[in-house]
From TrEMBL:
InterPro entries in alphabetical order: Aminotrans_V_dom, PyrdxlP-dep_Trfase, PyrdxlP-dep_Trfase_major, PyrdxlP-dep_Trfase_small
Gene Ontology MF annotations: transaminase activity
Domain (Aminotransferase class V) ranges: 61-363
Organism lineage: Bacteria, Bacillati, Actinomycetota, Actinomycetes, Kitasatosporales
Name of this protein: Aminotransferase
Calcium is among the record's keywords: no
Alphabetical list of PANTHER family matching this protein: HERCYNYLCYSTEINE SULFOXIDE LYASE, L-CYSTEINE DESULFHYDRASE
Alphabetical UniProt keywords: Aminotransferase, Pyridoxal phosphate, Transferase
Length: 379
């Protein structure tokens, strides 16, 4: 494919170091300058008059939640602002009051701390999904085949973090609901990347706003179906307990709310840039990078979806077999080559994930492909 055009003004919206090519937006995101400016101004409010700031936080959180819900297509009365996907997973699972012998189905593509949240509360059954499964239908069949009579909950990635695969599709969610299985969807990568992040109407859905949603770190949202809202516990006793969900979940007295209050600015910025345009650009850029990397000996692209701004490839066998090996290779690529990418571990050999964002340029992926070849040849 030909190189995508550079997004006009994209790089100027961020303050990323010019000494490193940041091709890993999916891990921690990056905060655009206009959003950071609003964030700082809110922090200044808290600094100059703490009493006024904190007394007004509950209502301001509700206002921010309404703006975010409108962008995501969520019910503002059925969504709560939280700090990250892992916290949201714990809240969702606690609402279900699982017994120790209840089974929570997960897949081996699941995010580590989210799966750990389930393991703290119930018996976890892991369904293996080969990274090379050809399409969403193959994933759907594998998940359904993993159900047992004890399966009470399916905790599934909307988009898997390491392998950039759609898992919790509307078709799969409908199948699980039909079988009486409660669905909890980890949509960490969905806000800002997908046009309809809550498609399929899961029982619980949560997504990070600080990745593709351009929000400050520590910004996420938990959306809950009507039938479950009254059972979502506040993580700590709250002065908003009498108001119930979502206010009792959001307000925790003296905490740092500044990122959550600035979070709507990120989604608004995407809309002002043209959300469809941003999504199409980022996906095309990730696809271009994956195509270049696929030309290297031993790198094999995994099945991909054109809607996603992430692409994953398998590394040569024997590389990144464990988390420690993956982390070592990731840091070597950053230190020696000057690129930030995700290296993910897998038994027998892991993979590499690259992302596309409006601050990236085609030349960065071209340089990565050139620089990576001798490093891999030396393994």
């Amino acid at each position: 494919m030909s190189a995508p055009a550079v997004f006009p003004g994209g790089s100027e919206l961020f303050r990323l170091s010019a000494g490193v090519a940041h091709l890993n937006h999916g891990s921690f995101g990056a905060v655009p300058v206009p959003v950071a400016r609003v964030h700082r101004s809110i922090a200044e409010e808290a600094a100059v008059d703490p009493d006024r700031f904190f007394l007004g936080v509950p209502d301001r959180l509700a206002e921010a939640r309404g703006r975010i819900a409108a962008r995501l297509g969520a019910d503002p009365e059925g969504a709560a602002l939280v700090t990250n996907a892992t916290e949201a997973a714990g809240l969702a699972l606690d609402a279900l009051r699982l017994a120790p012998d209840d089974e929570v189905l997960v897949t081996d593509h699941g995010y580590g701390t989210v799966v750990a949240a389930a393991a703290r509360r119930a018996r976890v059954v892991t369904v293996p999904l080969g990274p090379d499964l050809p399409d969403e239908e193959a994933v759907r069949k594998a998940v359904l085949a993993g159900l047992t009579p004890r399966t009470r909950v399916a905790l599934l990635d909307h988009i898997s973090s390491p392998t950039a695969r759609f898992i919790a599709t509307p078709a799969l969610l409908a199948d699980l609901a039909e079988r009486g299985v409660t669905t909890v969807v980890d949509g960490a990568h969905a806000p800002g990347m997908l046009a309809d992040p809550l498609a399929g109407a899961p029982d619980f859905w949560f997504g990070n706003l600080h990745k593709w949603g351009y929000a400050p770190p520590g910004s996420a949202v938990l959306a809950v179906a009507t039938a479950h809202r009254e059972r979502v516990p506040a993580p700590v006793p709250s002065w908003e307990d009498d108001r119930g969900f979502p206010r009792s979940v959001e307000y925790r007295a003296t905490a740092d709310y500044t990122g959550l209050l600035a979070a709507p600015e990120g989604l608004d910025l995407i809309e002002s840039l043209g959300a469809d345009r941003v999504r199409a650009h980022n996906s095309a850029l990730a696809a271009y990078g994956a195509e270049l990397l696929a030309g290297l000996p031993g790198l094999t692209p995994l099945p991909a979806d054109e809607r996603l701004a992430m692409r994953a490839l398998r590394l040569p066998r024997g590389l990144a077999r464990t988390p420690a090996e993956a982390a070592s290779l990731r840091e070597e690529i950053a230190a020696r080559l000057g690129f930030r990418v995700l290296i993910w571990a897998w038994p027998g050999g892991g993979g590499i994930r690259v992302c596309g964002q409006i601050y990236n340029t085609p030349g960065e992926y071209e340089r990565l492909a050139t620089a990576l070849r001798p490093l891999l040849d030396g393994r």
